[in-house]
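Researcher: Here's a chain I'd like modeled. Treat it as a single chain, no partners, no ligands.
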Amino acid sequence: MDTTTTAAEQQVADARAALAHEVDELGAAARSAVDLPAKVRSAPLQTAGLVGGIAFLGLGGPGRLLHRLRRALRGGQDPAPKSVLPPEISRLVEDLGESGAAVGARLEREFADYLDEKRKGGRLTGSPAAALWRTANTLGTTLATNAARKMVERLFEADPGREPAKPPEGPTA
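Model: Modeled as a single isolated chain. Structure tokens:
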């Protein structure tokens, strides 16, 4: 055979061996990454902390804490409005007699839905405090999402102390 052909075959064989080694290394890293019992045995507090942090962020813990903080600063639950209808309409509904309660309830629901729709569309502005809480909620959600992503990456990263895959020995031609 020609020497260039022999050299090309040797390069292909070396490339195959290197690819096989990389695949073995990737498999070892993947097994190490998903071996949670081994991670718990080697660092139980760290693993429990990561799992707890992921659960806390995944279940909306920061938002719940902010809501409770807001409620504590205000001094209890937000007072529910007695009626969202304007006083003139409330008087007209009361004059309807027996069907006034049903009509009033329907108007209350529809007017509350209308106000919610306008708020969501940005056509009604809230107070500066509401804007602050919306900003804090948006920022908190972004930070919590990034923190949860980092925790999941850390939980499922390959163990740096694992045994590397052994490279193939000699040429395989």
